[in-house]
């Protein structure tokens, strides 16, 4: 599953960030901002008019990113206990 | 002893500028969003032990791998390759103690620069309030650099940092071996040194964001905030403005009575008091506008507004990243255009620069207010809205809509396949600090009054001179001003502007308005004051009351439309030249804005005449 498909409010864990072409400065920046495997992530809001961009919480930081940017991030839904 | 060169570096919005202001006693702009500082700023201070320090405040960066012009400045200064800047002797790396997860990665990157580094753990008070415990000794050992706690917003919040600067010089840290997973390293360090409780503020953010970022309530809140802002600018400022207006009228009257009739009296009363005085009247409005903007900047709301508007901006071919530069342009296009340095995509940046002058800057406010006050009836609409405030809101909206349309057209003419990026941090909410707001407003008031005292007074005096000389020949009929240089210039310009419904007085006022838009108000006051003869000096100050007898409503509306677009600001054109390095872009901006201004004024005049 990719981050842009993650329903709002669902806790997930990042598997990887894929490069879209090389070099991919957006993917590199995402990794620098903490989008790295094993990190917990959640979509906290989607914007009006089509749900793009997303507001995403990672660690204690929130980022706004467009769906095309979020598409680079592979995630899986965290266990219900989390 | 040579001064110590220190550079402040760190993630965006970690409080570098607050620390810089605290150390150097400066008043650089601080705000609660990434990218408030876009160029290096220099300041000086002396440590308690008497060491003189030259401190550089650098734009925030998430990484040395720069993706925007402001980050590139930081990268180059740190590497010692920035032209005209010596390499810093010491880097003070600032990190937000409440957000070490993100900020420590950059701190580790700093180790590879081969320069001594001290880590300032800023906002340590907020971290402690949130129940975080940080083992400073252990953090220092694991990071391999001295760590000092700081609070950028408290008076002695930099005490430990100053003491450290006076102590033994810190060593150059050992670089992190290449290929290390910096995130894993940060995670390990945090596990070892920090006892986390879930930050209290995090839960508050969650709750607030549920409303503020809501797909329906979010835009409603945004609209209400903006609408209240314009109502406030109009309604709250009025009593204060009336007070200043009356004061100036009284002053003109008293001075007029005390001074003997003659050239000097005319200079003081018709030139300085009528001209510059009529501009000072608008101080309360400008301060109320800035109060709103400062409070919004401090609160952390602006990046959220950018989030809500990203979709709308993308229709125009821009991203939410353009929002903050454009919003800053409501105060003044000059800092707004400089703030575009945070935009990564060069084409987005260029388009944002081109449309920034369409945002209604505070210098247009005096003209709008004057004309609205004189021609639009003071009346309630739908019970709670003020018609004058509504028209003002409409003029701002016209500027915004035009900017979106122009941006769309430019994108269509110059397509770019590169992906527009947003990727923007949404900072923690913060209650605006009354002291910071007061200081910010004081700063704005000072700048405005300085501007009135220098540029505006000199321009109005110049205009007074042009409007007073040469004197009419003996036995001439008609007002003396018709014989003056200004009168003649106005009449020469008239054929060009007559189709817009402008009279020659307006044409004259447009010229000094090029240097500073608000001068146009003073210029009109001077021209009409001189034209009105000698016995109505007091009345001349009541420009608003007098205009309806000279102008028709279509003329006033046409002039309003003209000012929505006209590129009448040399400072804006100069900053566009500096930021883009291209005269072509300057010519393009001035050209399209004049074209739009002329077309809009022409249409407005003729449509209004038909109604």
Write a structural description.
The complex is a heterodimer of chains A (82) and B (611). Chain A is an alpha+beta fold and 82 residues long. Chain A has a single domain (3-77), classed as Roll (SH3 type barrels), CATH 2.30.30. Helix content of chain A is 15%, strand content 35%. In chain A, strands 4-3-2-1-5 form a five-stranded antiparallel sheet. The two termini of chain A are 18 Å apart. Chain B contains 27 helices and eleven strands. Chain B has a six-stranded mixed sheet, sandwiched between helices. A two-stranded antiparallel sheet of chain B has the order 6-8. Chain B has a two-stranded antiparallel sheet with strand order 9-10. Among the domains of chain B are: 4-197, 3-Layer(aba) Sandwich (Rossmann fold), CATH 3.40.50; 443-610, no CATH class. The interface between A and B is large, with 32 and 42 residues.
Q: What is the element layout, followed by pairings?
A:
The complex is a heterodimer of chains A (82) and B (611).
Chain A: E1 11-17, H1 25-32, E2 40-46, E3 54-58, E4 61-65, H2 67-70, E5 73-77
Antiparallel strand pairs in A: 1-2, 1-5, 2-3, 3-4
Chain B: E1 4-10, H1 16-24, E2 41-46, E3 52-57, H2 69-79, E4 90-96, H3 100-110, E5 117-122, H4 124-129, E6 133-134, H5 136-143, E7 147-149, H6 159-166, H7 182-193, E8 194-195, H8 200-212, H9 217-235, H10 237-258, H11 263-280, H12 283-299, H13 302-315, H14 323-328, H15 333-338, H16 346-355, H17 365-375, E9 380-381, E10 385-386, H18 387-413, E11 424-426, H19 434-468, H20 485-497, H21 504-510, H22 519-531, H23 537-541, H24 543-550, H25 553-565, H26 570-580, H27 583-610
Parallel strand pairs in B: 1-3, 1-4, 4-5, 5-7
Antiparallel strand pairs in B: 2-3, 6-8, 9-10
Helix pairs in contact in B: 3-7, 5-7, 9-12, 9-18, 10-11, 10-12, 11-19, 11-22, 12-19, 16-18, 17-18, 17-24, 17-25, 18-25, 19-22, 20-21, 21-22, 25-27, 26-27
